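Please check this:
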Amino acid sequence: MEQHPAAAWLTEAATSAVQQHGAGNLLRIVLIVMIVGCVLTAWFLLRGYKRKDD
């Protein structure tokens, strides 16, 4: 199976982060990205429910 260059870079970066700093920093980054993604998704979905009183 052929990997995309971006996927290979991401895998290499994650592997080096775990080897150098342990899993703690990688898990923190993953959690922060997930929380930010959830907030942006909620904002995007909920902005359509705003009432317009025109």
Q: What stands out?
A: The radius of gyration is 18 Å. Residues 23-46 form the longest helix (24 residues). The chain has two helices and no strands. The chain has a mean pLDDT of 78.
